[in-house]
Amino acid sequence: MYAVKAVYDGVNFKPKQPISIKEEYEVVITFLEPVVKLVADTKPFKKHPRSAFIGIWKDKIWMSDDFNEPLDEMKEYME
Fold first, then answer.
1. To the nearest 10°, the Cα dihedral for 65, 66, 67, 71?
2. Which tens digits make up the pLDDT trace of 7-45?
3. Is the CB of residue 15 less than 8 Å from the CB of residue 3?
4. Which residues are registered as beta bridge partners of 8?
């Protein structure tokens, strides 16, 4: 069995890699998912400056004081 990714344009299948098989093969064609093409007039994703995200999780995340301490369950593996 040999697998090759290809794109179907409605008429032809265009392999995404070279195929070097010389013999005849039985083929099963499976359509996985449509190819998403970007439209030229779409606006690019607005990138925020890194400084806009500094402190965004302040007072929303809590970690216990013994977070870095070894777990009792792992003692036998740490010896």
1. -170
2. 888 888 888 888 888 888 888 888 888 877 766 656 666
3. no
4. 13
